[in-house]
Amino acid sequence: MAIQFLFFSFLVFLFNDGVFSFNPDLWLTPNSIPRAPLYDTGRQSSHEQIVFNVDHYGAKADGIDNSEAFKRAWEASCSSTSHSSVLLVPPHKTYLLKPLELQGPCEAKNITVMIKGNLKAPSERADWSREDLNYWIKFKNVRHLTVKGGGELDGSGQIWWQNSCKINKSVPCLDAPTALVFHRCEQLRVRDLTIRDSQKFHVVFSQCANVKAFHLTIRAPQWSPNTDGIHVTGTQDIMIFNCLIGTGDDCISIVKGSKNVYVKDIVCGPGHGISIGSLGKKNSEAHVSNVLVEKVTLIGTTNGVRIKTWQGGYGYAENIVFQDIFMTNVSNPIIINQHYCDSRKPCYQQNAAVAVRGVRYKNIRGTSATDISVNFNCSSTVPCRDVALQDISLVTPHSFASRSSCINVHSAEAGTVFPSCNGIKNQ
Ligand SMILES: *[C@@H]1O[C@H](CO)[C@@H](O)[C@H](O)[C@H]1NC(C)=O
Ligand SMILES: *[C@@H]1O[C@H](CO)[C@@H](O)[C@H](O)[C@H]1NC(C)=O
Ligand SMILES: *[C@@H]1O[C@H](CO)[C@@H](O)[C@H](O)[C@H]1NC(C)=O
Ligand SMILES: *[C@@H]1O[C@H](CO)[C@@H](O)[C@H](O)[C@H]1NC(C)=O
């Protein structure tokens, strides 16, 4: 309630005053944007640091599976009583890895996985069993974990894409692995890595807390199905910044149970843009709140900044800010869709809906690939509330015009807003 009050009193302030001085601390908790230095100073304090090189545990860059060797090296680094232990993947080599789960909690106070070399997933689906089907590399229950090193993780996803029911309509829909999963990790840093051609999502943060993900490059072809760049679920206090993401699905997707999410300095495309949702699938409950997305460039994506919910769900998406966003040839630059339907079967009309409220769009400019550049398709029973637009300019390159479609939305506008929702009757 307090957060909501702050947010809306801020909106009132903003629109009365016209001065822009947004301070995310107003509604992100003080701890949510960690203030530790971004870069290591290179100094290792007086504490000891012990390095566990995977090669010393039997890893070989010769095209044979290395998951057992990596597991042994992980056991050693995790159970080390040193202040800081480092699992090292040496540079200039490529290690083949079958699905690998690395579990905590660890004895080591800090654990760094230094991936200097490259990791490659097998290209055969037979290397996955039913139990490990949802990951390629998974970290679980680890605190004070840093994963970095400049290396590349290659998911070899082609075989999974070809056999996806989204590509071949005659095959059944099966799950596919996420390249890099962090589950229940706290005080997590993931940085300076390239992740490419994942089987499904590239990086997932699931039920994590206090996360910084930055300097990541994520690449997959535009046609690859479900290859979201970074997927955030059930995670609190997460900051994602300075990333280059181009895939076949959302660059960043933020779904249920996520709170205090700060996304900044992202270049996205190709792909489906930055998404909150989908939320409320199969009549489920979902809560997402306090999301700030700023300084994002989107190039040729099928959506820009999107909120999507299924009919029949419960819960809310609230206190969401998209600002300082530049788009080039984006198909649905600003979109809220409370009638999202991605299933094979058509979705039927339902009255319940995940509420969408307190969404602000500020300083969003660029070109739209379609005529409708602002599209609020909200529920007639649970309309979108407190939607604010300020300083918007979205045009189509050929006509320098574009339209808005604003259905069941209570919106306010300030500054120059083009296209505007004003003058459009809510249905
Ligand atoms: C290591 O762990 C301690 C607490 O266990 C933490 O305060 C510190 O920031 C961690 N990181 C490094 C790089 O030492
Ligand atoms: C689609 O799947 C069917 C059934 O497995 C298979 O026979 C067909 O060759 C596949 N099509 C393509 C284009 O891969
Ligand atoms: C803009 O996007 C549309 C739809 O994705 C695409 O067909 C078209 O080639 C793109 N135009 C340019 C100039 O990239
Ligand atoms: C809103 O969504 C519904 C369901 O997908 C669709 O039938 C309708 O055409 C959409 N309205 C607009 C104006 O896009």
Automatic annotation (TrEMBL):
Signal peptide location: 1-21
EC id: 3.2.1.15
Catalytic activity: (1,4-alpha-D-galacturonosyl)n+m + H2O = (1,4-alpha-D-galacturonosyl)n + (1,4-alpha-D-galacturonosyl)m
Enzyme class: hydrolase
Family annotation (InterPro entries): Glyco_hydro_28 (IPR000743), PbH1 (IPR006626), Pectin_lyas_fold (IPR012334), Pectin_lyase_fold/virulence (IPR011050)
One Pfam family here: Glyco_hydro_28
Compartments where found: Secreted, Cell wall
SMART domains (UniProt xref): PbH1 (SM00710)
Domain of life (superkingdom): Eukaryota
GO molecular function, one term: polygalacturonase activity
Family: Belongs to the glycosyl hydrolase 28 family.
Protein name: endo-polygalacturonase
UniProt source species: Rhynchospora breviuscula
Phylogenetic classification of the source organism: Eukaryota, Viridiplantae, Streptophyta, Embryophyta, Tracheophyta
